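WARN  no MSA supplied for this record, continuing single-sequence
INFO  ligand: zinc ion
INFO  echoing inputs
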Amino acid sequence: MSDLSELYQGVILDHNRRPRNFGPLPDASAEAEGYNPLCGDRFTVRVKMDGDRIESVKFEGMGCAISKASASVMTTLVAGKTREEARAMFDRFQQMVMGQGTGAGPGGRKLAVFSGVSEFPSRVKCAILGWHALRAALEERTPAPVSTE
Ligand code: ZN
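INFO  complex generated
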């Protein structure tokens, strides 16, 4: 283990133990549930929009350390961002965990915490779950839970 991956692991453990923005958001303007059947991760992401900007974002549910930490880091990154900025961040995150990019750009250093996931295909879905739910909530299409399958 390099120092860098130990650092990353520390961030993941910290966010898993003390997830940020975890809990209900009673005045949410949209929400979506994400479910990863492979691991059993299930989270609901809620956003409160101010026009096109994400005023606040919270999540709740249960899942493994990677899925929970990733959703937690996500909420710290997208609060205050526009739909478009959040979507662009989703794209960079998705490419990075699939081993197709470094995640560099706004929030890149926090996103990079999850770059090691690209070596473990079964964990990619854990890492991306909260982001999928966020994107669905931003698109306000919430008829069925989004599944990573
Ligand atoms: Zn998981």
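The chain has one domain: 3-144.
INFO  checksum written, moving to next record
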